[in-house]
Design a protein that fits this description.
This protein is an alpha/beta fold. It is about 35% helix and about 20% strand. The strands form three sheets. A four-stranded parallel sheet has the order 4-3-5-6, with helices on both faces. It has a two-stranded antiparallel sheet with strand order 1-2. Strands 7-8 form a two-stranded antiparallel ribbon. The longest helix has 24 residues, at about 185-205. The protein is globular, with a radius of gyration of 19 Å. Mean pLDDT is about 75; it is low at about 1-55.
Amino acid sequence: MGSPARATPLRDDPVQCRRDADGTEASPAAGASGVYHRRVTQMPPQPDPAEQTKTPGAGMPAIAVVVSKYNATVTSKLLEGAKAEYTRRGGSEWRLGIFEVPGTFELPAMAGVVSRLKGWGGVVCLGCVIKGETSHDEVISNAVATALANLTTRTGVPVGFGVITANNAEQAMARAGGDKGNKGAEAMAAVLGTMRAMADIRQGAEARNPGVRSTLEHQPEDKAGGA
């Protein structure tokens, strides 16, 4: 038997992905074990670096999207919503990194890795937890929400919480592109809005202007507006 094909590590820029010997796109996992995270789908063709400034969306920050494959019928719709929101804001898909994890509980681990890499401006986490016969769903949801909140405060990198916590499948689908909106799109919008606000704060500090005001480009939903 021949020796297994070894994958080629990524460059410093996480958007620039090389391929391993069999042509499968790969990215390095944490540590030096030689284990690589293979992407299931082909990423969009990336423009030549010299042409990137001429490419639509080149000015948008690179965003990492971490998506759980558990309840994939729902999370695939969340991913579609997140990508659509990014491109609607003027971004191009070649500026997105898509990382799959087995379940919602694994979201903080992967988000922690990518948030510490150079190049990612923010992280969007997508998952779906549906209530069962026990309180397992509450344990998972609370642990993940707490871990992601702690992560963004420790690293300073915005992390979007696109995790649906539903009582049943119908509620989950309604929030994954149904009549209750799309939590993936909302999480992407939240990350982009937070990144802009953080940039405004830095700009005001550098200009020694404490009177700076940062306003959102796109207003979130106001559920109490009709009350």
